[in-house]
Amino acid sequence: MRQLRIARPRTTFDPPQIGWVKEATKSEKPWKSYNDTAPGARAGQAPTLMRTTADGSKRPVKFDGIQGDYMIDLKSSVVNRPRAGAQILRQSEVLAQHRLIGTWEVPTPVQKAKALKLLKQMSITNIHGKVVKP
Amino acid sequence: MIAMQVAEIIAQYVVFLELTDEEDLNLDTAVKMMEALAGQLQEMDKGFLRELVNAFPIIAEQYSGEAQEVVRGIAYGYYLEDALAADDPVKLAALEALRDAKG
User: Fold this and answer.
1) Hey, are the CB atoms on B36 and A29 less than 8 Å from each other?
2) What residues have CB less than 8 Å from B13, skipping those under 6 apart?
3) Which of A2, A43, A51, B26 has its CA 20 to 30 A from that of B61?
4) Residue B30 sits in which domain range?
């Protein structure tokens, strides 16, 4: 009983606030249909998480799907450019803010190796890589 | 000649995707299009892709500053040399080592 009295209620977290935005990119190409096949995806819409920036302003970060605590970004291929690197930091930050994990779904093991190398170089631990055949 | 013209078009779009201000172009959408472009370039006929890769440094001379660096970096950043070396483990290992060195 004594134990019970001093037991504190477990901290509970609100469910993640997922927003949806109209997807502006339209294409009949395979990469587009690949992007729309993420679990929890809605055709023509992209799920977003609101990122609180250092100055307190809020900016949405787009993903492709949701599966439980995992936000999915379908990458038809990986690129190693400054804007792609900035996206990795944005995704990692917003995932941490919402206590979620990210999954990059890529079409081949070669792309997965590139993805994991990029994430490792940037010391990102809350985004994983997974091969999902188109 | 055709490769040069196609490379010029690709360079224009890459500069647009990589340097357009966030107010005018959603950054996540830009990255999504860069990834789609990378995938399509990597799947091109290897002979033509080699011509494109060779053309980018020449085309880069038409640009200046940040845009010039963007065009110069296309083959590296979009893994085009890696796609060309897909069947050559020795070349792939050399490219990997280069990437490791760049960090």
Assistant:
1) yes
2) B37
3) B26
4) 2-102
